[in-house]
Amino acid sequence: MKRLIFLVVLVLASVVWIPSAEAQEAVRVLDQSVESVFRDHVTFRIKLESDSVIKEVRLLYRVTGLPATSRGDAQFEPGKTVEATFTIDQRRDYLPPGSEISYWWRVTTEAGDTLKTEPQTYLYMDDRHEWQMLSNERLALYWYRGDQDFGQALFQQANRTLDQIEDEAGVRVEKPVKIFIYGSHRDLMDAVEVGAHEWTGGQAFTEHGVVVINVSPNDLDFGLIAVPHELTHIVIHRATDNPYSDIPRWLDEGLSVYMSGELDSPFRGYRELVRLYARQNRLMTLQTLSSSFPADPEQANQAYAQSGLVVEFIIQHYGKETMAKLLNIFSQGSLYDDALREALGVDMWELDNAWRESIGAPPLKRPGAGEQAPETEQAIITAPTLSLTPPLTEEAMPSGGTPPPSETAGKTNIPCLSIGLVGVIVTALFVMLVHSPLNS
Ligand SMILES: [Zn+2]
Question: What's the pTM?
Answer without folding.
Answer: 0.76
